[in-house]
């Protein structure tokens, strides 16, 4: 029941700008909301009002003992128009980062996390290779303004999820449904990451820093054949893995392209990350018809399978492409009643601490409840409950468990008994 974390292992929390900040900005998710596309009708302009409440949220983070924080910046705030930089937004982030550091919290900054300013969307967004210059401009502006305070960066969050949801399934803005287009976006995002990787290093080097750490956040799933004896299920599982994460992991990490991606002029092979950043949630069970959820498996409130061993499988899959220190940059679950989140954390962290991989950090998704994209406010992933009407924060039982785990640097018998022992997943 008890386990200790490895010495030096750091625990924190992750979030993204759009999901917590709120604000009437001209960006793709506020636009998607205005088209009536959010299932529960909730407005991302409200979210957790973190742009106003950042001080309170950061203090609460420190109170729980969190020492590393993955947070995002909002492109549409920094560049509200193509040729305009809002200095006030940069100063805001500066103040927030300074405060984090004052409280002993090390910031890991995500530059792009799904949301685009509408001026960029109108130009065709990431579907057009020539638009990468706008993203690189954002990288430059951000690193020049904040690079003296921030040494750790995620260039792009989950390029595979962004490309497939936005350009293949058509559920996210801009709502396109084309395999070819989704693949083109993956290709373009790869080039963006690689150039951003080099740019961030170059700008910080010019400032005299040698401690820069850059990666992209890789959304990885386990793809398992429903019936391992059925060759079609096996083939389908391999194919889905390759299309969703295999080819892209190698491209983003090494600048080497394989089907379904295409070689890109101007992108050389090399090593384009300093740490492996894994976002892990679930396993897919694959038949010849596609992927689904295994019958009888433990599930969360959104019906996603809970499969803790998968966090190690995925970390290993990426580690085999390039061995680097591993940071889990997202892991968490939708549990609206906070009935099994502590068990979820316990199961995933114990799997990680039993593994032989050099896992150094764990960022729980998420610190507070937040705007969960299409699901809006109705899917709660936080350690801290948010009452969206009053914006009041209340630490959940899982938040207390997490704080205890951080303090003890592991799970003691008492922590297990008080928070985990009675918890069960949905069948
Ligand atoms: C994303 C987050 C999201 C989480 C839970 C990840 O795909 O990076 O933005 O809230 O999963 O769905």
What would your notes on this structure say?
It is built from 14 helices and 13 strands. The chain is α/β, with parallel strands linked by helices and 427 residues long. A hairpin with a 2-residue loop joins strand 7 and strand 8. The chain is globular and about 55 Å long. The two termini are 22 Å apart. The model has no long low-confidence stretch (mean pLDDT 98). The structure holds beta-D-glucopyranose (BGC).
Task: Describe the protein's topology.
Elements: E1 3-4, E2 10-14, H1 17-21, H2 28-34, H3 50-63, E3 68-72, H4 75-78, H5 87-102, E4 106-112, H6 118-122, H7 132-146, E5 152-157, H8 159-167, H9 179-206, E6 213-225, H10 231-254, E7 276-287, E8 290-292, H11 310-319, E9 326-330, H12 341-354, E10 359-365, E11 384-387, E12 392-395, H13 397-408, E13 410-411, H14 413-420
Parallel strand pairs: 2-3, 2-10, 3-4, 4-5, 5-6, 6-7, 7-9, 9-10
Antiparallel strand pairs: 1-13, 7-8, 11-12
Which small-molecule ligands are present, each listed once? beta-D-glucopyranose
**Into which percent range does the helicity of residues fall?**
40-55%
Beta-strand content estimate: 15-25%
Radius of gyration: 20 Å
Category from helices, strands and their pairing? alpha/beta
Q: Could you list the spans in which at least 5 consecutive residues all have pLDDT below 50?
A: none
Overall pLDDT level: 98
Which word captures the global form?
globular
Order of helices and strands: EEHHHEHHEHHEHHEHEEHEHEEEHEH
What spatial order of strands do you see in the largest sheet?
2-3-4-5-6-7-9-10
Helix segment count?
Answer: 14
- For the termini, the CA-CA separation is 22 Å
* Biggest sheet overview: 8 strands, parallel, barrel
